[in-house]
């Protein structure tokens, strides 16, 4: 971490209250005192497990995209595979990445590398989203959708990623961040 | 939009219920029927106004970063200026971008350009985050923090953006997405 970003003088918080518990996150409020101020006000946090997504590249230099319905926007979105890290332990994000890739696409890959992580949205979420690069991806398994998943696979030459972000085809912030980690890894 | 991503066969939803109303979002649930399935289950959406952020570049080719406490992660984070689009109307994101830049940093700029937008997180949020490029930024005004804001300004050569994403100094997904739109605009 740079610029002297010490994690001192954090804003004190107390009276944690779980307001709602959904399958994706808990909505929690605290009474927070901005540092050096003498008042408190309620702040809200969405407590969530980590997320993970996968930049999967085939031997033909295609990237594996998926198309699925997203309830937040009430639209179909074009993304990369990924999901919630349900596993525990140090390797959990990688194990989860491999599982999500198989479940959502039936693809596996021999070579995996962590590209980095971004915070889900540190204003309101308490979690991180990990991005893995999977090289040599190919279709080896059957898909295994959750009861409320219905995913279509789209293979695209990887050289088109920049164009697809620029023209808004891929607009999910977590996926744009993930692809940005990939582009930084590849191009610079 | 590419790949035949028609917005047909959206999953029907009914019985909208506001479960909580916070200053940043409403937590809402619907009964949703996955397309072609004969069951419903509750899905959750965080209804929020649009967000906006600003890639502000000075005449010395520095980018304007800010450091502030973020309740979600309970940490100080290094970001670019931005906030919630409180204004109404077609120009609202731009008006809001200019207002946030002044309030948070005291900087203004003569030249503005929309770099693009990303969806906040279409799995759970219903909103978009707009990114503006502000060129020729300079300190002309006093800051005007909200009662629970305390923001430190950091000027960094813009050529260091990639390094700061790669080493995790800037990790907020909305900011990484915004800077990715900027890098795509500048480099490609």
Largest interface: A-B, 79 and 79 residues
Oligomer: homodimer
Helix share of residues of chain A?
10-25%
Terminal-residue CA separation of chain A: 20 Å
Protein topology:
The structure is a homodimer.
Chain A: E1 13-21, E2 26-32, E3 41-47, E4 51-58, E5 62-70, E6 75-79, E7 82-84, H1 92-105, E8 107-108, E9 111-119, E10 128-139, E11 152-157, H2 161-166, H3 173-187
Parallel strand pairs in A: 4-10
Antiparallel strand pairs in A: 1-2, 2-3, 4-7, 5-6, 5-11, 8-10, 9-10
Give a quick rundown of the structure.
The structure is a homodimer of 188-residue chains. Chain A has 188 residues and is α+β, with helices and mostly antiparallel strands.
Characterization of the model:
Two copies of one chain form a homodimer. Chain A has 188 residues and is α+β, with helices and mostly antiparallel strands. Chain A folds into two domains: 13-47, no CATH class; 51-187, Nucleoside Triphosphate Pyrophosphohydrolase, CATH 3.90.79. The first copy, chain A, has three helices and eleven strands. Chain A has helices at 92-105, 161-166, 173-187; strands spanning 13-21, 26-32, 41-47, 51-58, 62-70, 75-79, 82-84, 107-108, 111-119, 128-139, 152-157. In chain A, the strands form three sheets. In chain A, strands 4, 7, 8, 9 and 10 form a five-stranded mixed β-sheet that branches. In chain A, strands 1-2-3 form a three-stranded antiparallel β-sheet, with no helix packed on it. Chain A is globular. Chain A starts with 12 loop residues before the first strand and ends with a helix. The relative contact order of chain A is 0.18. The model of chain A has no long low-confidence stretch (mean pLDDT 94). At the A-B interface, β1, β2, β3, β5 and β6 of A face β1, β2, β3, β5 and β6 of B.
């Amino acid at each position: 971490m740079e610029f002297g970003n010490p994690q001192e003088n954090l804003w004190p918080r107390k009276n944690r209250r779980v307001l709602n518990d959904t399958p994706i996150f808990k909505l929690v409020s605290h009474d927070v005192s901005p540092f050096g101020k003498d008042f408190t006000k309620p702040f809200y946090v969405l407590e969530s497990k980590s997320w993970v997504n996968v930049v999967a590249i085939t031997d033909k230099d295609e990237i594996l995209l998926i198309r699925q319905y997203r309830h937040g926007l009430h639209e179909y979105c074009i993304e990369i595979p990924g999901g919630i890290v349900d596993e525990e332990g140090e390797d959990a994000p990688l194990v989860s990445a491999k599982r999500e890739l198989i479940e959502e696409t039936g693809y596996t890959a021999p070579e995996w590398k962590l590209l980095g992580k971004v915070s889900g949205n540190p204003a309101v979420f308490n979690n991180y989203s990990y991005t893995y690069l999977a090289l040599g991806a190919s279709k080896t398994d059957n898909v295994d959708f959750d009861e409320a998943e219905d995913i279509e696979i789209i293979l695209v030459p990887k050289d088109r990623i920049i164009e697809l972000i620029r023209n808004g085809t891929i607009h999910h912030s977590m996926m744009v961040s993930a692809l940005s980690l990939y582009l930084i890894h590849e191009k610079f």
